[in-house]
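User: Hi! I have a protein structure encoded as tokens and I'd like to know what sequence might fold into it. I'm fairly new to this, so please keep things simple.
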């Protein structure tokens, strides 16, 4: 049984980096940049007015009210090209270019216009109501770096500097296999001793949220030979594998998938076939037990250059191990700057018990108190099958092995 940090370290070490591709900017949300985005111009590109009013020379309005001759106007998209001279003022609109010679803009509310002249009623300071050229950013400055995840907030900045297309890392291809004779499809009504296949759909959503493309493969019942055939097929091994009295040969030689996720069958029960099947197929197993609750029997392996995650069958264990391990691999493949969940701290509203032999990552909801502090609300988590409680989770709280979190204690959390 290895510690969680060591498991993550192994995953990062064994995860390959994917190639890049060029895509349209409108398709770039949630993708990982494979290039540096730079400013191709100063921003603002000129001295820009912050107000509707009049551009003036401060030296002309030392004594107010000051009477100045209006020589024209500057509007957004159509500036005034002549230099402002002594005794002159220029009508100007918000966002318009400030003319050469002007060093302040007085807002229209502090002026009075009359027959081609304007009266400045209050003296402005030098630079007042002017955004100077390149005050936001200079040409050639790095805006976003390689490995950053593209968000909605970044699009305006990227588009402003002419990036109609972006170079991003390719999306990992993920295949998902659920196992267990008790599993039926979502559309079916479970009979006695059966449950619906919620894990596969959850994993599909989680992998795609992490930036991958996913495919749910047909469910596999508790049958050693069938599971062996399905795993071999998923990773592109062209081996003959007998099933009953038949032999089925996989035709997939070059699978697109980079990751295979298998749920269930990773413990040590009579019908837990995942690990022995992987060993028989020649998989390199990096770890098969983690000091984690929930999620102890997690398996990480590689077969035919496909990374394989064997996750427990209980839904909360599946979610937690995906967030900690699978998500890390997906983002690592795309050279993301950050491949782990964002962490933070919050105050426990009640006591949270620890486990004696393992570190815990337990689902919690978050709120704020009247002091503005972030507070952990424990979900009365009853076990790794309690997906109803997990559905209300905002974060995972870290509970160190053998160390209860007392009420009022500050605890580390991972935001979901």
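Assistant: Happy to help. Inverse folding works backwards from shape to sequence: for each of the 416 positions I chose a residue that suits the local structure. Here it is:
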């Amino acid at each position: 049984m290895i510690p969680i940090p060591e498991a993550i370290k192994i995953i990062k070490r064994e995860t390959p980096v994917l190639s890049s591709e060029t895509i349209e900017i409108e398709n770039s949300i949630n993708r990982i940049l494979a290039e540096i985005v730079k400013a191709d111009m100063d921003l603002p590109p000129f001295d820009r007015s912050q107000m509707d009013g009049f551009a003036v020379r401060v030296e002309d309005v030392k004594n107010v009210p000051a009477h100045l001759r209006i020589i024209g106007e500057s509007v957004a998209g159509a500036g005034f090209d002549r230099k402002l001279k002594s005794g002159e003022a220029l009508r100007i609109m918000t966002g318009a270019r400030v003319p050469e010679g002007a060093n302040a803009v007085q807002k229209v509310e502090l002026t009075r216009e009359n027959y081609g002249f304007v009266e400045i009623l209050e003296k402005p300071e030098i630079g007042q109501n002017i955004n100077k050229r390149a005050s936001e950013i200079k040409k050639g400055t790095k805006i976003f770096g390689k490995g950053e995840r593209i968000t909605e907030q970044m699009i305006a900045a990227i588009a402003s500097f002419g990036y109609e297309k972006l170079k991003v890392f390719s999306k990992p291809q993920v295949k998902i296999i659920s196992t267990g004779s008790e599993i039926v499809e979502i559309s079916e009504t479970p009979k006695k001793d059966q449950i619906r296949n919620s894990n596969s759909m959850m994993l599909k959503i989680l992998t795609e949220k992490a930036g991958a493309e996913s495919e749910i493969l047909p469910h596999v019942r508790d049958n050693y030979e069938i599971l062996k055939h399905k795993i071999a097929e998923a990773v592109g091994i062209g081996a003959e594998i007998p099933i009953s009295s038949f032999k089925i040969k996989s035709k997939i030689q070059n699978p697109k998938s980079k990751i295979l996720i298998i749920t269930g069958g990773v413990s040590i029960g009579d019908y837990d076939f995942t690990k022995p099947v992987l060993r028989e197929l020649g998989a390199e197993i990096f770890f098969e037990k983690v000091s984690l609750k929930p999620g102890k029997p997690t398996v990480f392996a590689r077969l035919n250059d496909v990374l394989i995650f064997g996750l427990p069958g209980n839904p909360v264990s599946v979610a937690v191990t995906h967030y900690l391990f699978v998500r890390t691999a997906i983002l690592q493949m795309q050279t993301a700057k950050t491949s782990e969940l964002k962490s933070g701290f919050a105050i426990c509203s009640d006591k949270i018990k620890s486990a004696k032999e393992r570190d815990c990552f337990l689902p919690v909801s978050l709120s704020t108190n009247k002091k503005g502090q972030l507070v952990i609300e424990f979900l009365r988590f009853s076990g790794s099958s309690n997906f109803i409680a997990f559905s209300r989770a905002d974060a995972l709280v870290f509970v160190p092995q053998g160390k209860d979190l007392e009420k009022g204690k500050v605890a580390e959390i991972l935001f979901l």
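A useful reference point when you look it over: The longest helix spans residues 315-333. Feel free to ask if any position seems puzzling.
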